[in-house]
Amino acid sequence: MSDTPITYVRDTMLPQQAPPTSEVGPVRWARENLFSSPMNAILTILSLYIVYTVISHVGPWLINGIWDADSLSECREIIAAKGDGHHSAACFGVITARWHQLVFGYYPSELYWRPVLALLVFFVGIAPVLFPSLPRKLFIVSMVAPFLCFWLLWGGSIWLPISIALGFGVGVVAFKLLSVSVSSLVAIIGAILLPLIYWLYLSGPLAAGLASIVPLGIEFVPSRSFGGFMLSIVIGLSAIVISLPLGILLALGRQSDLFIIKTCAVVFIEVIRGVPLIVWLFTAQLLLNYFLPPGSNFDLTLRVIIMVTLFASAYIAEVVRGGLAALPKGQYEGGDSLGLNYWQSMQLIILPQALKISIPGIVNTFIGLFKDTTLVVFIGLFDPLGIASAIRATTEWNGIYWELFLFIGIMFFISCFSMGRYSLYLEKKLQREHR
Amino acid sequence: MSTLTDPPKPGFRLSQLIYDTRYRSITIQVIALALIVAAFWWLGNNTVNNLNALGKDFNFGFLNSAAGYDINQKLIEYNNQMSHGRAALVGILNTLLVAFLGCIAALIIGVFVGVLRLSKNWVVSKLMAVYVEGFRNVPLLIWILLIGAVMSESMPQPREFRGENATQSMYFSDNVAVTNRGIWIPRIGFTNSVSGEEAVAPVEGAAAVASGGLDWLLVLGTLGLSLFAMRLVRQRADRIQQATGERPTTWYQRLGLLIIPVGIVLFLLGATIVSPYLKGFNFTEGIHLRNSLIALWFALSLYTGAFIAEIVRAGILAVSKGQSEAAAALGIQPSRTMNLVILPQAMRVIIPPLISQFLNLTKNSSLAIAVGYMDVRATLGGITINQTGRELEGMLLMGAFYLALSLVISGGMNYYNRSTQLAER
């Protein structure tokens, strides 16, 4: 303490001052995020320039788009009548005029309700799988749904899907009876062989006989009429649904101790993965008839679905194998020490954990699979791109490119992007570890 | 299977094949084997019957007969009198060419975008996110068709480059021409070629040039030796640093080693740049990159680049922050932290999925069909099959080519994985 008298003592608090404008709000944000260093500033300006260039070129084209025109020439007349002096406007009229074709292909227009209903049935069927909180009784719908969808899409006699479904019934009954009376191994073999025999020799005559007694059915629609996004969705969804269990089985086979099973799984997976899908599609188109009994004529769309399914199942198998390999060895040993047999320990201990780990990979495979459905255009099916070139071949819309590509691209983007987001959501929901 | 060598005491009963776990695995495998053999027999039998019914046989003799079709892009000598086998080889080389170019471009794009997406700069990272999501979620085929359409619909025609008041001009001081028929870039010719090829003057009045395989072998050989010498210099610097702690400055030695020998060889061979120019209705001379190659190459690299960007990003994020902090604590310069600490660890995470992306790109190059690029599917799996009616043989060969390529690459990847894996208990 000094002796000098204190001349001033503050006895009131000053009000808080606002921080300098360079340290708050958008200015500060911009300083920290956009212009923190010369390099950053250059990058920012460059990116803004790119964004500006794209928007200034594409923006007017999009906004001035003509939505109500029945042909390209009509659309160009409308644009010329607007008198902007330049031709920068999109002709989205092609989408409104050919909307049904892009969505349903050449499906008979009075039957559009059938694919729509089939999609609804599919969603009801898949709901109990996706959302565990729903009542378990809905699984009955899940079991009926594939056959119902098949029948709704292709039509024809109702007895064909029913007699095919009966095959699975035969398998289940055989398994139940044999596993009680003989042993589980015999039961599994029986559950595989008996339905195969049934499908090969009995189901066809049974369906034909029932159809001749009680002719019950709806109008048959040949596969050639399928097209547009409907075809993509049919191929994509059926391949997704069938390839998941197949892929899991393959992955288990590849991890198996049984030498022959393991070798077969490895060879199958590597051969399928080593060759591009397009080669497999051409195989389905050109070669499958060589491998089947002489005279058998197999629907091209079904062949494609089978090929795409096998292709996807090999990829799924590798993803699931990654999940199986990531589990600590103690989980397998724990299952054994509890006295569970192979299938029990897989079902109760290993697979729930392994599949949880593999979810992102599985969904990515599905996204890739859905995108790959566009390849069927090369073997003459009318997927959206095939429909687009068919539209371009008509006199009304000869010479239209960008609008169709944009539309198809956006549709695929929406579906694939939302699948990706769902996988992220699922990943977070199933995350049990502390983080 | 040590349990199998231990026979049961009370004799063997048939029911043990089903109930006894020691024998059950054999039963299962035997049944599986029988089913597989039966299935293959059935398929083979059907194939033989079908081939007989069609009056076809199974042989690869068609590979030696004259192909009779032209291929517009060839890396080796080919004309339509040569065999189907030669045409298939041209196609294979074209596949490998676009795959190679695509892998390099995709890697560059992917690393750039992956790093930039982690940038703190909001605009840049969002722009990169838009690029990545856009390309990952839209089918590759659409991108190929789109870029093909851009190339053939929006680019100027060659005649627009003609005359005094041409509406279009070439880029890079009249060296690169971008037209709707493809892109022309300059090529290098040698006035003192040693390859023995006949030298031709590209333009009247200019020096005659030739460029043969031997010339390029000489240049590349010199480059290889230079790289080897550069490595020796670096190893010597490493040794000195280990011994004395002082690292000698070597960058000028290495730069000189890289440039001077190749420069001397190029000078001795008389390397000259031969630019494309307009002749008649089209450009001539230089290297013509066809629209099909450009569209396929760009689409493949942009598409795969988006996937690689995600891999690179994940790899960098996988290295924990403690690593760079520890490097700083040890006094390693920030510029060397990336090279010495972060990248080696990130690489372990990045390389395996990266190589499988390269594999995907190679397989996706079969989408060449969309733009008419003459790859192996178009030659062997397309025109050859159509002309000879040998679907079975052609598809088998094509499948075998892709399969061999995949197995070689994935074998290399497994080898790399084993060599870089962390040793665990």
From TrEMBL, chain A:
<dbReference type="InterPro" id="IPR035906">
    <property type="entry name" value="MetI-like_sf"/>
</dbReference>
<keyword id="KW-0813">Transport</keyword>
<feature type="transmembrane region" description="Helical">
    <location>
        <begin position="264"/>
        <end position="288"/>
    </location>
</feature>
<feature type="transmembrane region" description="Helical">
    <location>
        <begin position="41"/>
        <end position="63"/>
    </location>
</feature>
<dbReference type="InterPro" id="IPR010065">
    <property type="entry name" value="AA_ABC_transptr_permease_3TM"/>
</dbReference>
<feature type="domain" description="ABC transmembrane type-1">
    <location>
        <begin position="229"/>
        <end position="423"/>
    </location>
</feature>
<comment type="similarity">
    <text>Belongs to the binding-protein-dependent transport system permease family. HisMQ subfamily.</text>
</comment>
<keyword id="KW-1003">Cell membrane</keyword>
<dbReference type="GO" id="GO:0043190">
    <property type="term" value="C:ATP-binding cassette (ABC) transporter complex"/>
</dbReference>
<feature type="transmembrane region" description="Helical">
    <location>
        <begin position="228"/>
        <end position="252"/>
    </location>
</feature>
<protein>
    <submittedName>
        <fullName>General L-amino acid transport system permease protein</fullName>
    </submittedName>
</protein>
<dbReference type="InterPro" id="IPR043429">
    <property type="entry name" value="ArtM/GltK/GlnP/TcyL/YhdX-like"/>
</dbReference>
<feature type="transmembrane region" description="Helical">
    <location>
        <begin position="375"/>
        <end position="394"/>
    </location>
</feature>
<dbReference type="Pfam" id="PF00528">
    <property type="entry name" value="BPD_transp_1"/>
</dbReference>
<feature type="transmembrane region" description="Helical">
    <location>
        <begin position="300"/>
        <end position="320"/>
    </location>
</feature>
<feature type="transmembrane region" description="Helical">
    <location>
        <begin position="400"/>
        <end position="422"/>
    </location>
</feature>
<dbReference type="InterPro" id="IPR000515">
    <property type="entry name" value="MetI-like"/>
</dbReference>
<feature type="transmembrane region" description="Helical">
    <location>
        <begin position="111"/>
        <end position="131"/>
    </location>
</feature>
<keyword id="KW-0812">Transmembrane</keyword>
<keyword id="KW-0472">Membrane</keyword>
<feature type="transmembrane region" description="Helical">
    <location>
        <begin position="138"/>
        <end position="154"/>
    </location>
</feature>
<dbReference type="GO" id="GO:0022857">
    <property type="term" value="F:transmembrane transporter activity"/>
</dbReference>
Automatic annotation (TrEMBL), chain B:
<dbReference type="Pfam" id="PF00528">
    <property type="entry name" value="BPD_transp_1"/>
</dbReference>
<feature type="transmembrane region" description="Helical">
    <location>
        <begin position="255"/>
        <end position="274"/>
    </location>
</feature>
<feature type="transmembrane region" description="Helical">
    <location>
        <begin position="87"/>
        <end position="116"/>
    </location>
</feature>
<feature type="transmembrane region" description="Helical">
    <location>
        <begin position="128"/>
        <end position="151"/>
    </location>
</feature>
<feature type="transmembrane region" description="Helical">
    <location>
        <begin position="294"/>
        <end position="319"/>
    </location>
</feature>
<keyword id="KW-0812">Transmembrane</keyword>
<keyword id="KW-0813">Transport</keyword>
<dbReference type="InterPro" id="IPR043429">
    <property type="entry name" value="ArtM/GltK/GlnP/TcyL/YhdX-like"/>
</dbReference>
<comment type="similarity">
    <text>Belongs to the binding-protein-dependent transport system permease family. HisMQ subfamily.</text>
</comment>
<feature type="transmembrane region" description="Helical">
    <location>
        <begin position="23"/>
        <end position="43"/>
    </location>
</feature>
<keyword id="KW-1003">Cell membrane</keyword>
<feature type="transmembrane region" description="Helical">
    <location>
        <begin position="395"/>
        <end position="416"/>
    </location>
</feature>
<dbReference type="InterPro" id="IPR035906">
    <property type="entry name" value="MetI-like_sf"/>
</dbReference>
<dbReference type="InterPro" id="IPR010065">
    <property type="entry name" value="AA_ABC_transptr_permease_3TM"/>
</dbReference>
<feature type="transmembrane region" description="Helical">
    <location>
        <begin position="216"/>
        <end position="234"/>
    </location>
</feature>
<dbReference type="InterPro" id="IPR000515">
    <property type="entry name" value="MetI-like"/>
</dbReference>
<keyword id="KW-0029">Amino-acid transport</keyword>
<dbReference type="GO" id="GO:0043190">
    <property type="term" value="C:ATP-binding cassette (ABC) transporter complex"/>
</dbReference>
<keyword id="KW-1133">Transmembrane helix</keyword>
<protein>
    <submittedName>
        <fullName>General L-amino acid transport system permease protein</fullName>
    </submittedName>
</protein>
<feature type="domain" description="ABC transmembrane type-1">
    <location>
        <begin position="92"/>
        <end position="413"/>
    </location>
</feature>
<keyword id="KW-0472">Membrane</keyword>
